[in-house]
Amino acid sequence: MEDSEKSFGNSPLLDYLSLGKSYGPYGIVGAAIVGLIIPVLLATIFVGKRKGKQRGVPVKVDGEAGYVVRNVRLPELVEVPWKGATTVAALFEQSCRKYSQDRFLGSRTLISKEIVTVSDGRKFEKLHLGDYEWQTFGQVYDRACNFASGLVKFGHNVDTRVAIFSETRAEWQIAFQGCFRQNITVVTIYASLGEEALIHSVNETQVSTLICDPKLLKKLTAISSSLETIKNVIYFEDDETEKDSSFSGSISNWKISSFSEVEKLGKVSPVPPSLPSKNGIAVIMYTSGSTGLPKGVMITHGNIVATVAAVMMVIPKLGTNDVYLAYLPLAHVFELAAESVMLAAGAAIGYGSPSTLTDTSNKIKKGTKGDASVLKPTLLTSVPAILDRVRDGVLKKVEEKGGLAKTLFNFAYKRRMAAIEGSWFGAWGLERMLWDAIVFKNVRAVLGGQIRFMLCGGAPLSGDSQRFINICMGAPIGQGYGLTETFAGAAFSEADDTSVGRIGPPLPCCYIKLVSWEEGGYMTSDKPMPRGEIVVGGFSVTDGYLNNPVKTNEVYKVDSRGMRWFYTGDIGQFHPDGCLEIIDRKKDIVKLQHGEYISLGKVEAALMLSNYVDNIMVYADPLHSYCVALVVPSHQDLEKWAQQAGIKYKDFAELCSRAETIIEVQQSLSKVAKDAKLDKFEIPAKIMLIPDPWTPESGLVTAALKIKREQIKAKFKDELKRLYE
């Protein structure tokens, strides 16, 4: 994911303002005149405010205290996408038969790759990729069945577990579905997981077969003596894969096979399926974990199909005409849930990666098209950290262009904003088409030009970024809220909801209730909106944590009807239309020396708006009356400031340590804090600049790029101590 950060930090979205190219030397002026006069007149004539829509309704649940809300669509919770699809195995088989001739999984061919050395000596891999090659639903079904039979020949049965330790790719999904043909539980492990967490995950689940990328084979070598139960290693083949003979020779008790070898074994010796039940454990998913070792969440088949059924009701016109670009980690619940929805809907899934996503992504060879340009997806998922970087990058590029281009962009943006918030005609009629053709078409082309709906999850998305991407991409963003513990199924904002900063009503598969938290001052009796801890109940709520009954009983509760409820630790409030908004998190609230409560997450979200901030962790010691912060600065912005200020430095680390640099960043933080109306005690009194980025590989952020507070505190404990001296 470090590549992901670089790729989006230098996104081609930053280079989109080629406004004059299509219009000749004076065309942009004429376009501006048309854009300024005609839409304003039309929007004025056809103005009309959209009526509010009820999306969630309060309900009375027997024996349940708190404020409970369900989706307005159905009086009863939805459990399956259609009759008979009670397990992932059944859903997969029925979809593959229904859409057998339609394209399903697509991957790009590798034409060539080369290593490029830049001026400072750093080396980068550059890829020349071809078109997408597709497998139909029917072909994928046959491959999954063959793989399943091959696993049985390896000695697998219902009592054994398979782990997938790999980046996202088509074979990941084929292996995943193949395991369920024989009722084998799948353990999902992040490819970026550290050695200690990897050993813990494999040993705790007693995995007998581990499926991995070939590039991860050597990583396994270093810890092979600590992996107690592994008998088989199956590696996915790449275009240039050759099995490392030194690896296979060094692990005498492991049988190492290629994915195609297992498929061939199953094809010549087919085995009848042994299908799971809806209450059976489909997946043990290890959270990326913001504290300590990752926990294994036990996800049932029923949990997965319930979330699938609910999301299919929310995304409009989802079907075989859709193309989904898959590039986020499949070991993350958000991506796995999204691909499961696409499977059920008959949509095509094209695989890419964060480092090859766009034409100027850091692994794309110059002259080669990125994944989005080739695939032209209609649906895309993202995490907030990426969208925030895109927004910041586009705005910086607009500022650099200046002049008429900047004026036109800003005016177009304001008109589209006004249209979305007010006039129906302005939002969806002629004015929208004009602004798209004049200004936003080039932005949209970066992601293929066909995006009609975006899904965002993994962390809260700021209202500014949500509105910005919505306007520039011309597509609604469905902001989802869910956890591994609810298989991503909790709340989801709907396509026709133009508000920002909210996460929509409960999905139709679950209830959401708020429970008062007196210590934090959040009560369901609060006016004008009830507030409290968010608790999710229903078919998407998972079975708990593997081998951890204490933690399970702490956050999972079962009511008198047998319904499971999960206590999220997040604080929310319900709007009158039944939409939920996250406003805090229990673990992020610290009581300072003089009794003030500070919400670390709220402060961090506000300070992230500083141009100098790439990442930040605010820290508050209860024995003091102020907070401090560790700031990972933006290389580009800080170096630009240093150049303008005439500051000489040896390297970036030295620049970060200079007093004048710290003062400049702190002044910027103070400004955005005041703009966000933070109290004085919420503004960090002291900061320290950390020159190295926080990445999933470093263990300091999750795969969704959320900070791991405890790990950062442990790594920088001496620095935090010095900030309070």
UniProtKB/TrEMBL annotation:
Residues 127-546 form the AMP-dependent synthetase/ligase domain. The keyword Repeat does not apply. This is AMP-dependent synthetase/ligase domain-containing protein. PROSITE patterns: AMP_BINDING (PS00455). The chain crosses the membrane at residues 23-47. Its cofactor is Mg(2+). CDD domains: LC_FACS_euk1. One of its GO terms (molecular function) is long-chain fatty acid-CoA ligase activity. GO terms for cellular component: endoplasmic reticulum; membrane. InterPro entries: AMP-binding_CS, AMP-dep_synth/lig_dom, ANL_N_sf. Pfam families: AMP-binding.
